[in-house]
Amino acid sequence: MPWSQQLTIQMGNSYAGQLKTTRFEEVLHNSIEASLRSNNLVPRPIFSQLYLEAEQQLSSLEAGNRADNEEEEEEEEEEEGSESSSPPVSYQVKPPPEGCCTTDGFCQAGKDLRLVSISNEHIEVPSGFLLVGAKSPNLPDHLLVCAVDKRFLPDDNGRNALLGFSGNCVGCGKKGFCYFTEFSNHINLKLTTQPKKQKHLKYYLVRNAQGALTKGSVICWKGAEFRGRQSSTSTCSSTLFQLPESSGLSGSTSSEPLPPANPSAPAGTQQTAAAVDHIPSTAAFSSAVYNGKESPKQQLMKNNLSALTRPSVLGTLTNSGPPKKRHKGWSPESPSSTETWNLQLNPQASNRIKNDGGSLSSLPHSALVGPASSPMVGSGEPVSVPDNLLKICKAKPVIFKGHGNFPYLCGNINDVIVSPLLYTCYRNSQSLSRAYEQYGASTIQPISEEMQLLLTVYYLVQLAADQVPLIEDLEQIFMRSWRESHLSEIRQYQQAVPQAFPQLPSPITPVTSAQLPWLAGLAASSCNDSVHIIECSYSLAEGLSEMFKLLIEGKLIKTNYVVIICASRNRAIDSCIVITGKYQARVLSESMLSPSDYQKEVNYQLVTGKVETLGSFFSTLCPEGDIDLLLEKFYQENQGHISSSLSASVNKPTAVNGAGTAVCTSYEIERHQIRPFQLAVAQKLLSHICSIADSSTQNLDLGSFEKIDFLICVPPSEVTYQQTLFHLWHSGILLELGLEKEHLTKQRVEQYVMKLDAEAQIKFKIFLQNSMQNPHTLFVLIHDHAHWDLMSAMHSLYPQTELSSGLVDRLLNCREVKEAPNIVTLHVTSFPYALQTQHTHISPYNEIHWPSSYSNGVDLYHENKKYFGLSEFIESTLSGHSIPLLRYDSSFEAMVMALGKRFPRLHSAVIRTFVLIQHYSAAMMAVCGLSQMKNYTSVETLEITQNLINSSRQCPSGHGLMVVLRIPCIPLAAVAYERLYNVRERLALEDNFEIILGNPNSGITIGKHFVEQLKIWQKIEDVDWRPQTYLELEGLPCILIFSGMDPQGESLPRSLRYCDLRLINSSSLVRTSLEQELGLAAYFVSSELHTEKAVVNDVLESDPEKLSSTDNEDEEIVTEGSTSEKRSPMKRERSRSHDSASSSLSSKASTFCTESSPPQVLSNSTEETTNNYERQKQKVDKGAQTTVSKHLPPVTEQLDMKQNIKSTQVSITSSSSPPFSSSSSSSAPAHNSFILQTSQCSMTKASKQPPIVFLPKLVYDIITSTDSSGLPKSSSLLPYHSVMWASSFRPLMSKMMTCTEQSLYYRQWTVPKPIHMDYNNRSEGRMDTFHPRRLLLSGPPQVCKKNKIGKTGAYLQFLSILSRMLIRLTEVDVYDEEEININIKEEESDQYYHQPGDMWPDLESFKKMPFDYTIHDPKYEDASLICSKLQTTNSEDKSKSRRQEDMYTCRQTTRMRLSKYAAYNTYHHCEQCHQYMGFNPRYQIYESTLHAFAFSYSMLGEEIQLHFIIPKSKEHHFVFSQPGRQLESMRLPLVTDKSEDYIKSPTFTPTTGRHEHGLFNLYHAMDGASHLHVLVVKEYEMAIYKKYWPNHIMLVLPSIFNSAGVGAAHFLIKELSYHNLELERNRQEELGIKPQDIWPFIVISDDSCVMWNAVEVDCSGDRKSDYTWTERNVSLKQILQHIEATPNVTHYALIGMRKWSSKTNSAEIKEPFSCCHVHDFIMLNVDLTQNVQYNQNRFTCDDVDFNLRVHSAGLLICRFNHFNVMKKQIAVGGQRSFHIKSKVSDTPVSISPAQYICAPDSKHTFLAAPAQLLLEKYLQYHSHRFFPLSLKNYSHPVLSVDCYLNLGPQIAVCYVSSRPHSLNISSSGLTFSGLLLYLCDSFVVASFLKKFHFLKGATLCVICQDRNSLRQTVVRLELEDEWQFRLRDEFQTANAKEDRPLFFLTGRHI
């Protein structure tokens, strides 16, 4: 840029500045230096540097001055750039002296200068010199160590460096280099540009704690920070932060002119060897972890965390950002505002660094605890941490590094903790969300650093004294702020595609760095010094030093947070935040411990005796003396009689309740039953399994499995293991699946449950072996409690963790499981979030969520149990409810906080545990009469203890309550157990309640006395029985100390009343941890309102999806009040009743002994005790009569509640009942009659309402606080400790999200850390990473599994119905009907023509057999009987016919198991028949050809053209012409051919509407034999059949037959086959084969033939007539080969077999062969039947019609009675595919058969159906209108000429053929009641008809194609001679003229 122009720009501003004299010398130096080095540019004006802010000029000059020198650009990008006020100067390196070393990294003397090589060597550094690191362009990964005079180096502000250079070589020791050019030659920098110290001297070098030389902070050369960081106060500034990658810098190419990065920004963020920059992700303020030890490149990058994503320069930039506030002339439209428009984040970069950084969280946590306290390596002057800081401050301050540089810490660094988490949060919020990139949102700037810090201050200011900052809160604040400030831009991008250079709106006035400290101080001024702001001028070091000074002086006692800001005008801000509040610092520091380190720390404090000081402190609290002394004294005084009253009801259950019964009847053992919920879930699981099987991916072949096997994997908890065994045993599933026999042993059940411990691998190996050995068994691998161990097997680096760590990954994700086609994995959990990440194995389509019980207010599952979970617990804390179920104990919290300050070195878990033990001990003592101890416990603990001790007294049988005391740390749990056990013994309460230590690694141990009680209650007689699950403790009064870091799926009994979670690890704030702790209390409660609980709850009415609690230990009796005061859940205020220091505790104070006293008659002597809550309730329920009566034993008179309840005065009423005596004889008030029958059993009451839960205050606040949508804050926490958020810029979750939407949210916004087993499940060239056979079932946590409402029962039910479905898949419904008309005996029926054991018919004998005209096939039960002269005239009345639609649905079927010889539909996929089905890789599915095949047929008078679709694999069955590949014929074998593996007869299967369900897969039926199978399909169905059966030959009928019936298909099959026979005879005759030797048979098979059976007859009896027979399933191949081998087989025209029936008797098979009708599966001799045709017009009974024609032609029909075919019931397709509907209207209207015909020329509604179909259906149902005399007149049948038509079951017909020489029955003795002439041909003549005799009044029906033919037929047959016709007796089918209706003419016999 010309000097004059630049000067004009600079001096033209109205800047009324003063000359900055302090900078004058520096600026003069710079100007002189620039002029000396520049030979083509005038030096920069000095005064402009002093008047204007340097940021604007240096960067604009830089952009204009940098030339296209690629190498320099690359260097500057990597090295963050250096000052350059001149263009690059060409530079020639002076040649080195001969013989000297020229190796990079070595000096010319050959000495190594690389930092990595000499870091541990001693280096002499002269006084006044500093060691610095130089960068060589040839060694980008190394620093060269140099000694430089510090006078020639800049200060921290980049100033006051003298011109020139003075340095020494540390390698060879050469000194006195006065020119940097000379020095750079000596150390072999080999530069191609002018050497500059600013460019190549980059870092200070410092010694770490181990004395090793390491890279320190960046040398802050003047101007570098200005180029590196534009003014961050601008919303348009170019500080768009690029996240680092593991490989170093990224994000830009070297072809663009780039502004340099910032060398001074986050200086010193790298680590010393002793300081690991890593914090576990479980912290309250540490929800995500990214940083750790880096490679040198990473370390370099960490010093460039603010490195810009380089913008494209859009022309010459005159200014790089807005000037200061005084500059009025700058506008957003100026070129500088466009500088960052094209900035684009690299999303992959951000992902990679997150994943890479996340990998560091797998480092051993032991390396993080002590060393993590060490400071992060910083820059500049070190800051000394004062000695005795912890002792003075009573807490370790936690320093959160913020922006910019962080100084070194030295001295007592163990007393501070430094965390990078806030820095990470700031960095992440600088990255734009990928969600906005799609809108081109690269122009939207991130939130500025100043605004980030200011928002952080605002956040800290509004935190209460007992609140701890949450990183999620801060992220959401940043997100909202960013969104709001850029709302218009975001909307702009959402509404329209952005232009190339969009016009930015005016930016919001930014916060400048100068304004920041003032604004921060202003914000903090209102918080009573809770937040203290320290502003420093030069570096954070001075601020930290001041902070430490204030701490030591005690001036920060009220301060929880110190914000240190270093903001100067000429560079970016540095900041950090120090947590000095004792409570907050303790919580945050403890949150940085991993679970294993947490246990170690506690164990260490217990083992080393550090807790003894705590114990001695407790002993000083009690003025009466040590508690142990009091206990001993009490024990001595009361030994022998104290337990008599307490244990009276326990030892002698003689108490009598109001009804007079002496035994509690509430202990009922519910029998196993399936709940509606479970069935619904099981069916959803089954549906998903079927979806996997139905998909085209072939991932699961259900059809190939015969049975189910399974293995349930559970966490290594002995109780959970036994609990699962218990459920499995009682479910009966093992017997149901056929896996075990009747006599089941526990050892056998254990084979199906695997505990994930050290022995799991053996059991799992057996499981895998079984799966490999049984490919036809489907193995279901159930992973219960699936969120428990998700540790990656590869990253299981914790040597201190259990052996089971990473076991799930090793076993369930092993290659064998993934690849096994017969293993389905089902993950079951209540907390699925960790399995719903970006890398999950589980498809979102394979997730099954527990169904909602309500939908739009409708109860979907009529379930009498309703779920009470987290949302319902939260709901109970809202005002308008009864006493809340979710509470915290403020007095306990206050004491813990006080002790935490007193004992800062003790872990808070230790303090909390000891305080709670003390409270329980004091409460037990107070209840036992030591009333002075009530002051040393809290009201909550006293309530729990009181109700526990008194619970067994209220029940005649001694049933009591369970109290769960959750102590995660196992050593602390052991201490608590031992202490409480001793106190109980001293108080002689050992028979009153049990104390149980629940350790996940061991079973349950309880006293013998309580075991005996349980055996009595549960009616167990086994002497050795011991409870093994917590469920078996139902009714036992006990404290269960529940230990283990996480619950592992243990279920708790219904008698659970209190869930004390005050000791859970409140610093581990992840959603899964919190919800599974609260899941212990989740409950299924009865949905009916019990009579003893008449509490009306407004939530129950207003929000039916939420169950409210009616939980106040029956203290309240509230009648229904006004409903007008109901409030919506959104508007309800939080009730104060959950705080023990507020109003509700008055209630609690008065309930110490409430459980022992039932409601009594209100009298003047009793006082009402009503707490504030109840008054509030009275206000809400106006008009309600709220009456509370509480009777307290005298011992409570002495209770002094002053210390615990300061806000409430409680009236405690005296009662006449003695202490701890039974008061069950008291009566209920008359006016409260609705509670007369209240049970006194505490367990009964407990089982009808959810437990009460006590939480730590911190957790309580998180759980009960909700966002604007009502979503609990806990739901928006990080879901799991081994996952992390993919981005800070993520949308908020919503309360309205369904489970599926939550899953999709987590799948998009969470990624697994490297320690997570899914971490490596990333796409590697694949479309997806989901495992196809893996499912996830998520359901609510609950304890009431005794009712088996839970997930265990659901998945066991799933196994049951899956097994049934597999059996169902291997079973079919086959028709099972007896033959009909068997009572119509033939005269010669006693004669047998063959022996029962004959294999084939004897031709001569068979010719003598008479033809049985009677139809015996049960499917023709509705058909007309065919009469012959042989039959007896006494036929049964068949009037009870079925309706048309019943013909198929009402037929009798039976279920049969498919044999290995069955025919299958398209759903069958097995490996054996893949090739048969067309899945052979040799042939592509589409490789088939279409061939035309034409032949002429005289009867049709035209040529018939058919089409064959022939797959390539089947072409060998056909003959093609050689030149043109025209289809010539289908190959036929010879009669003499014999082969075991070949079926000679081609099989034709006509089909319609059954492309999926037709049984066309004959591979197994044919037993693999070669055969020719042709599907005969209609033209319009060709494509769909070809799709489903790509490897089958298709014969496509002409389009004119699209609406034809089965007769047309049979007709064309037969005619085609005969034509083909002729062609084959001609073809093979040329080969010398006689025509009669060609095989003439074809098989015509129905598409529903599924299996075939053969009867084996044993005639080995003494007499010839004696025989036995058995039926077995055989292959179709065996049957066909047997029939084909029949002697003289070509003399038979039709061969068939019986239809299978289970009711077949010996008489039916005594004659092995019959001459009768054959159906369904026939072998047809096309040669003999050449002149006998099927009727191509027929829809029904065409086979009967054809059989009669064949027989009348004198041909033989043989039925093999020893063979039968089973027909499957198929509900679709076939005859039912024909629907008769109106042709006029498309609306489906039911049309009765009576409307199928009409008078000619009438206005009757025409029907869209073939005329023939209408005719056949009409005659079937209404033929009595034509033949009234024939109705039920079986001895006078209707004479039917040349055809058989079904006239219905009430009319008999007699068939005669008019053909010459045909075989007809002798009609001499028969008189007919009617004559049916159907489409008569020329063979029917008048003389033929005159041979028959008719009854007077008999009717005639003539049917012809048209009216003209009708008249001609009447004349030709001289019908008018004997028959009388009337004009009105003419009819037609209800068809339009174009549909060619059939015409009828009826007449009466004269």
Structural class: alpha/beta
**What does the oligomeric state look like here?**
single chain
Helical residues, percent = 25-40%
Query: How many distinct helices?
Result: 58
Main β-sheet, in a few words? 12 strands, mixed
Distance between the termini: 127 Å
In one word, what is the shape? elongated
What is the mean predicted local confidence, pLDDT? 76
> How many strand units?
57
Beta fraction = 15-25%
The unreliable regions are 1-22, 38-89, 224-377, 496-507, 642-662, 797-801, 1089-1239, 1343-1347, 1432-1448
| Overall radius of gyration | 48 Å
Describe this protein's structure.
Helix content is 28%, strand content 16%. By secondary structure, the protein is of the alpha/beta class. The strands form 14 sheets. Strands 35, 36, 39, 40, 41, 42, 43, 44, 45, 46, 47 and 48 form a twelve-stranded mixed beta sheet that branches. A seven-stranded mixed beta sheet has the order 50-56-57-55-54-52-53. Strands 14-13-15-16-32-17 form a six-stranded parallel beta sheet, with helices on both faces. Strand 4 and strand 5 form a beta hairpin.
